[in-house]
Every structure is written in C-alpha cells, then in structure tokens.
Amino acid sequence: MTFDLSATPLVTLEEGVLTLPISLDGKGNALDSDAVDQMGTALAALLAGDLEARAVLLIGLGKNFCAGGNVAGFASADDRSAHVRELADRLHAVIRQLDEVPVPVVAAVAGWAAGAGLSLALTADFSVAGPDTRLLAAYPGIGLSPDGGMSWNLPRAIGQNAARAFILGNEPMTGERGYALGMLSTFVEGDVREAARDLAVRLASGPGESYAAVKALLRASAESSLSDHLDAERDSISRLATSPDGIEGVDAFVAKRAPEFGRD
C-alpha cells in the first residue's frame, strides 16, 4: 500500500475494511463536504491499486447515517444554483467510484437516511438497517429533485411505481418497511453499526476475485443482451477457475474444509 491514510484522517483501514464516514456528529448529521472529499481521495487510491482494502464500509459518525445535504449552506450561498451544482458534482464523483470499486460496499444505515444519505445507502451492495432506521426522500420537502443516483437506483430496487410514490409522497419509512420492499438488503434487531461492521469484515475475508467478477457482470447486465451476457458469464467463470481464489475455493470444497481466500 502506497497511499498515506494521514491525508484522510476521517478514513480508517482495519481488518481489510476501508471505513468511510459520510456525515459527522452535529449539524443533524448532514452530508459533510470534507468527509465526501476524503472519501473520494481514498476511493481513488483503492481504484488505482495504491490502497489495499477488501471491503468498504459507509457510516455516519453521529446518531444518524446521514440526514441529507446541508440545507442551511444551500440557503446562504451567493449563487444557489452554482453551489448546489458543485456539491452534486462532488457527490456524484464518489457515487461513480463506489459503483466502480471491485470490493463489496456495506452501508450502516443507523438512524435517519434522508436525501443524499439515502442515495448513498442505495449505492451500496449491502445496506444494513434496524428498528431505529428511518428513510426519507426529502427532496420535495425543500422543493428540489433527487441527486446521488436516487432516481436511478430506487426504481431498480423497488419498482417504478413504488419509487415514484416514495419520492413524490415524501413520507418517512421505517427500516423494516424499506427492507420488506427491497430498498435495504439487511434488517437486524441489534446494533446496526456493529452488524454492518461484522458483515464488512466477513466479506473482506471472502473471495475478492469472485466479488469483483460478480459486480462487473451485474453492472454490465443492464446494457447486455442475454446472449452476449451468457458469453460474458462463460468467460468470467472459466477465468476464475484458474485464479487463486477459484482454485482455493474448489479445492477446499472437495477437501471438505473451510477455504482461505486472499492468498497469492
């Protein structure tokens, strides 16, 4: 690893998990610009191979995951349009990075996930919620429209009609209801952050090459015909059959032992 984490003091790397705060304690856990910038820097290093992480964990450092953008900052900007456009560009650069990283991304959706906070949760591969989780589109409440990919990811998660009703209706939703609809991947009765961390650590010890291939195939499926995608699946599984993780996984299965992935 050549990346110096001291350049991103909010970011931590432990047990193969790159933990990225998206909001800080105070100010209602609004999306924090410095946190977004540090997230982008760390993700760029991960994508460039300068930082070795096997899973990414998104968290809020206060009681909420993220209550959305800093609306007071919107109001005080000299040029509101330019200000909001710049913030959206910075957020969207991170959303693109999260979509591109080859490792699993987990979101610890504790407390409120509203506006851009919910958009980030929808970007994750795994979104862990609990009894205190509350979801809100938020944008219509301040006369704005979604950013962060909400209007792209949400219809794909719960369907066009349900997504339309959720965003336009702008009514809070419990984490349990969001899980039942398919908006969130995981619901736990215990501590959301602890459960999300445990999941990220477990994924970090898993078959990284397999995860990367799965994410690449899923990403490509949106624009592929079935015939072309079948060819891509064939090429991928045959390549992985002679990869370190593929060899270890198959050999461990035959030997009836637990696989040890991540070995060269």
Automatic annotation (TrEMBL):
Q: Which domain of life is it from?
A: Bacteria
Alphabetized, the UniProt keywords read: Fatty acid metabolism, Lipid metabolism
Any Pfam family matching the protein: ECH_1
CDD domains recorded: crotonase-like
Catalysed reaction per UniProt? a (3S)-3-hydroxyacyl-CoA = a (2E)-enoyl-CoA + H2O; a 4-saturated-(3S)-3-hydroxyacyl-CoA = a (3E)-enoyl-CoA + H2O
Q: Which InterPro entries match?
A: ClpP/crotonase-like_dom_sf (IPR029045), Enoyl-CoA_hyd/isom_CS (IPR018376), Enoyl-CoA_hydra/iso (IPR001753), Enoyl-CoA_hydra_C (IPR014748)
- Hey, which family's this protein in? Belongs to the enoyl-CoA hydratase/isomerase family.
Provide the function of this protein. Could possibly oxidize fatty acids using specific components.
Instruction: Spell out the protein name for this chain.
Output: Enoyl-CoA hydratase/isomerase family protein
Organism listed in the record: Dietzia aurantiaca
